[in-house]
Structure formats: structure tokens, C-alpha cells
Design goal:
single chain, mainly alpha, 4 helices, elongated
């Protein structure tokens, strides 16, 4: 067993595995980075172990959420471009 940080105070194997294999490790794969970002956002006000237990559900919904966020970002970019064009032509 690896020496664990004091905050890993549960014998839960999910938590121990997260600490031993993921915590503090830089992530470069876009999908995994997105997952970590979402997990961190969902964590607000909840125990981290609760979020880790819901992780598989989030992974199953990942492609749908990515497409939805991409559509929103695309819409925002279009709006920004329209504002810039209107500003340039004096509307």
C-alpha cells in the first residue's frame, strides 16, 4: 500500500484508488481533462467521495454533454462575431 494523505480517511476502495492513481497527476487527454473539470464543478458543496461514486453515470452522459456545450460555445461565438460586425458598420 502506498503512503496516503491524511484526507484519505475512508477505507472505500474508490477513494483509495483515486488517491493512488489520479490525485495530483497532470492530465493531458482532452476527454479525461473534461471529466476532471466536470467532476470538480459537480463537487461544490458535496463530499468528493460522493462525486467519485457518481462518476460512471457522468461518463455515460459525456458525449451528449460535450455536444451540447459545443453548440452553446458555437452560438456564443456567432453572437460575438455579429456584435463585432454591427459595431464595425455602425449599427
Amino acid at each position: 500500500m502506498n503512503q496516503r494523505c491524511a484526507w484519505v480517511n475512508t477505507p472505500d476502495p474508490i477513494y483509495a484508488h483515486y488517491h493512488d492513481t489520479e490525485w495530483g497527476v497532470p492530465e493531458y487527454i482532452p476527454r479525461a481533462l473534461w471529466e476532471k473539470l466536470m467532476l470538480d464543478g459537480f463537487q461544490a458543496g458535496l463530499a468528493w467521495i460522493t462525486i467519485l461514486r457518481k462518476r460512471d453515470t457522468m461518463r455515460a452522459q459525456h458525449p451528449t454533454r460535450i455536444r451540447r456545450v459545443q453548440r452553446i460555445i458555437r452560438h456564443i461565438r456567432i453572437q460575438i462575431h455579429l456584435i463585432r460586425i454591427a459595431d464595425r458598420i455602425g449599427l
